[in-house]
Each structure stands twice: as C-alpha cells, then as structure tokens.
Write a structure and sequence with these properties.
The structure is a homodimer. Chain A has about 325 residues and is of the alpha/beta class. The first copy, chain A, is built from 11 helices and 11 strands. In chain A, the strands form 2 sheets. Chain A has a 6-stranded parallel sheet, sandwiched between helices. In chain A, strands 2-1-3-4-5 form a 5-stranded parallel sheet, sandwiched between helices. The first copy, chain A, is globular, with a radius of gyration of 20 Å. The interface of A and B includes residues 191, 192, 230, 237 and 279 of A.
C-alpha cells in the first residue's frame, strides 16, 4: 500500500467536522502535501485548505485524491462516484479510508483500468504476509503503547518523528491505521490483517535499517483492551521496540465504550508492555508517558503530568501542550 | 461452521500417514462418527476404519465427507474432484481442512447447488464477528494454554472433556483449529479471523451457558511464540477462563521452527497467562500442567512430571499415559 502526494482532500458532503477527522489529521501533519479540498453542496466540514474542483486539482498537480471522510450511511453516493471517475480520467489515483471498498465499485474499477490509475483501500491490506519470526533486525524502533484505544498513540509517534527530524536524526513514522497511512503515504491497517500474520506484517512494515535509524511505529489498541489486545501484542512482538512510550488520556472514566472495565494504572500498564516486548528485545525500555490532558486546564494538565512523572519515575508530557522534547531527551 | 456426522474420511492418495494426521485425529476422538475411509490408488495412509467407495458411504448413511488430509503439492487433483462431485450427487456434504478453498472450485459449487448440499472450508471462517466486549458470561470455561505451538492443547482439552463426561458433568469441547472442528462438528479457525475480531469470535464460540456447564476451549499458539501470540491473547480474553491448564512437551530443544528462541519455563508461562486472563476473569486459576512425554521412557516421563509438579506446586500429568483425572480433581 503506497501512494503519492500531493493530495486533494475529498470531503464530499460530510455532515460535520468530525466526519472529516481523517482528512483533517492529514492536513495537520502533512500540510505541504494537501493542495486543496473538494466539497459538495451541503458539506459541513472544512480542512482550511483551498477549495478546488476536480479539474483544478488536476491542473494544480495533485497525484492522489484522499477519501478521508465518513460518508452518510456508510455507502458511497452516486454523486461522489461521478466526481471520483472524473479524477481517474484526469490522471489522479484514489486512496480511500472508507469501510466500503472502492476497489469493488465497477465504475471506478473500469475508469482506473482504462486510464492506468490505481485505487487503494487503505483499510484492507492487499498483500500477503509471512508469519513473524522474531529475528533481531538492525536499526532502532520506538513503539507507542497505551492504557486504551484513542489516547494519542498516532499523535505521539508523529510528534516524536518531527522532533527527531528537527534534531537531524534519521527517523520514519510507520503507519498502522488509516489516518496514519495517509500521512505516511504507505503502511498497513494492522487490525485488518488475518490473526496469524499480525507480527509478521509488522516485521514487514519496519524492516532492518541503518544502526542509527529510528522507526516510529504507530501503536494500536492496548494490552488491557479486551477487544484489541491481539493486535497490540502482535505489534509489540513484531516491532521488537528498543523504546516504548505509554500513552494515556487524563480523566477518562473507563475503557472506551466499556463502562464495565476500569482504566489500568500506568505502572502496571508499563510493566505488562515491557514484559511482552522483552520476548523480542530484552533491552527494551520505557522512555516516558504521553498524556492527552485536553479535558483539563493547562495548569491542571501540568500538575497531572508531574504526578504521573513521579509515579512512574520517567518524563510525562502532553505532546500537544508541551511537545515531546523530554521524551526524545530520555532515549 | 457446523456440519453433521457420521463421516467418511476422504484420504485420496495421501503420501504417508502424517498427511492424514487430521483424519486420524477425528478417528481417535470420534470413532463412532467415522463409518469408513475412502482411498485412491497410491494412498499410503490408513485410519483403521473400513474402506468404502463413495457409493458405499452413501448407502451406509454418511452425511459428511471429511477432507482431513494434506494433498500432494497443496492442490486438489482432478480425480479427487470427480469423486467429491459424486458424493454431493449422492446427498453428502463436504468439509475440507485444505488451504485451497473447495468453495472456489466451480465443479463442486455447481454440484452442491444442484443437489442442495453444503461445502465447508473449515480453515476459512465464513461469518462475521463482533469485536469482543469482555462482559462476564454465565457458565464455566477451561482454556488450554502452552509454552509453544503443538504441545498437546487440543488433546488435553478433549481428554478433559471425556473425563468430565465420564463423571456425569455437563461439558463441551470448543474447537478453534481444523482438526478440532471436525471432531466437534463445529467451531472457528481462530487463526484465520481478522485481527480485530479474535476475542469477539471466541466470545461467540463459547457463549453463556448453565452455571454448572464447562466449555473446554481448545487453545492455540503461546504468549511466548512471537508468530502467534496475538491469537493466544485474544483466546484468553475471549474465553474468560475460570481455569487454565498449561501444556508443554518434555525435551523440546527450542520454540518450534525457531532455534533463536529458547522455551519459556513453566512458572513464568503460567504467571503470564494468568495475568492476561485476570483482565476478563479475576478469579482464574491454573489447575495443573499437561506434559507430552512421548520423547521419554515411561519412567523418565513420570519423573519429569513429578519434577514439574514440584516446581509449579500443581498436578502435572502426561494426558496419554496418565489420563487427566488429577487435573479434573483439582478444578
């Protein structure tokens, strides 16, 4: 799964800003790739880039149209298909993060074939993977883990990548979810891989590299989230991380969508992740915590991070408010 | 995935006894279901049940033809297809454990449709599952875990089921791999499920039940096998076991196919599995160890089990040589 910037963000008739969350994430992290957005009548989302027609996007040099939006009712409406067909005819590829596969829409398939263009369903891996073998690879890897889903693992990985690049280090973000894949231009939707091949897919995603090169591997799920722990442990074993950062949301009342599960405490979470990670890298270390404190005032957020830092005896930062310098310093 | 005994074991032209390992497992554990075997010229396997033609099997009342064999080169040869087509025409269903899908062979699909018969690819789940929710279900569950793959988890689960039924307890073996599925007549090939749905598929497999009913859930992989730990932790979380039995092979030199990974010691293995299992069942207990000592003499095997028993302070048995009474006594 690999596609090429620059992008047009296709927002269609997104019902609100949240429906365009993925497109917005791409715009935040790769503004230089996002030449414009395409909006139909009734679109209530705005990614703060110039509005463009399909023709204008082609003229501006867009290579890939990004479908990073939730459509109404989950299906792709006919007026989207005619615009997307036009994009293919004008020489652009399409990459979609929708559950519905664009590679199964006959009009788009035909137009792509006729014009020699590519269609990518980023939620659905197309290649086969080997089973993981756990053999040590050269290069360094950092994996974000967490107390739960949606606690800032992608954000933290990208912030660490940016900080490392600022310091002149060799660093690459490795994407494992749809938004991350648009941001990296490649990756694997790891939760959509067949169970037997989770760690093998991760080994493929972050292969051997220069000794001083860092892969920043986007974590998924949590060892303490019963829905997704299989994905998480496969990521841990496949990434064989040298460093982990534990991510957490301050004040989350219980595991997401599961009021019957309390959140795990950070020291227990860190130790369980290190224990799993030692299987493929006995030298793994936790270098700190990344806390989303957006539910708190800035002062409360700082106090919360200080408290966590004392509890785990490691740096704890809000990556949005504080940046991640303290984490990278501790590698 | 559910199909009906009695069975005809289709061995085709299996090159040796090992190629018919799955069929043989079905014959060992469900002899009353195996009315006969079907062998072509050159077949070097024998499941010690009467040889039958397809016509004889139909006349004997066979309901399902079991393809529990490894074909030469992994493909299904034309002379198998003509015999299998005949089986469909004579009113039998087919269940296959081959990697190649029989549901994608046009001749078989046509014959199945024409005759109102079913084709089952037991390695390939056909239904969709919800993500796991971890909500406590009524009924009791025992899960087999292990130091590695192929250490006797299916054998142990089936032995415990038999012992419980002997004692008049309500007990059901729940199959998660191809041989187990033929033995149970239903189940889920858990390693072929999409990563996001591993624990959800297990929740579906062993649903709520009577308070005194035991599900004996067939384990897969190992938390310490980097290739398959994702499958294993999903099984643990989804099964929410009340009891676990740890399985091990005496004298295995290293993790299967991975000389770079030593075996884990049993106390560490037990504690890691209990730790993972406590997330969905805080009262989980390890009730003992099941050791395959077939590499040792009977005397050495007994000594090995005694030594393990002292080390873990729990019963340790070879299920083939000693039976599993000591394990069931300790529930």
């Amino acid at each position: 799964m690999e596609f090429h910037p620059p992008y047009l963000l296709f927002l269609g008739d997104a019902r609100d800003q949240l429906a365009a969350k993925t497109a917005n994430g791409v715009r935040v992290w790769r503004p230089e790739w996002c030449l414009g957005q395409f909006r139909l009548d009734g679109c209530e989302a705005d990614c703060s880039v110039p509005d463009m027609s399909i023709e204008e996007a082609a003229a501006a040099g867009v290579k890939t149209v990004i479908l990073g939006v939730v459509s109404r009712g989950g299906v792709i409406p006919p007026n989207w298909i005619s615009e997307l067909t036009k994009a293919l005819e004008l020489g652009m590829d399409i990459a979609s993060g929708l559950h519905t596969r664009i590679t199964q829409i006959p009009e788009l398939l035909t137009a792509a074939q006729k014009n020699g263009r590519s269609l990518h369903d980023v939620r659905h891996p197309t290649r086969e993977f080997d089973v993981g073998n756990g053999i040590k690879r050269s290069g360094k890897r950092l994996l974000t883990v967490g107390t739960d889903v949606s606690v800032g693992k992608m954000f933290t990985s990208l912030a660490v990548e940016a900080e490392m690049k600022n310091r002149g280090l060799q660093a690459d973000f490795r994407a494992t979810g749809q938004t991350g894949i648009f941001i990296a231009g490649r990756g694997v939707s790891i939760d959509a891989v067949i169970a037997d091949f989770i760690s093998g897919a991760v080994e493929w995603l972050c292969p051997e590299n220069d000794d001083d090169h860092w892969d920043l591997v986007e974590g998924q799920g949590s060892l303490f989230n019963v829905s997704y722990a299989g994905v998480t442990i496969g990521l841990i074993h496949g990434a064989q991380p040298d460093a982990i950062v534990v991510c957490h949301e301050a004040g989350r009342p219980h595991m997401r969508s599961m009021p019957h599960f309390p959140l795990i405490d950070l020291p227990t979470c860190i130790e369980a992740n290190l224990q799993a990670a030692r299987l493929t890298n006995p030298n793994v270390k936790c270098i700190g915590a990344s806390i989303n404190t957006s539910n708190l005032t800035e002062k409360e957020g700082r106090e919360f991070c200080d408290q966590v830092s004392q509890e785990i005896n490691l740096p704890a930062v809000d990556p949005l408010r504080d940046g991640v310098k303290a984490l990278v310093d501790n590698i």
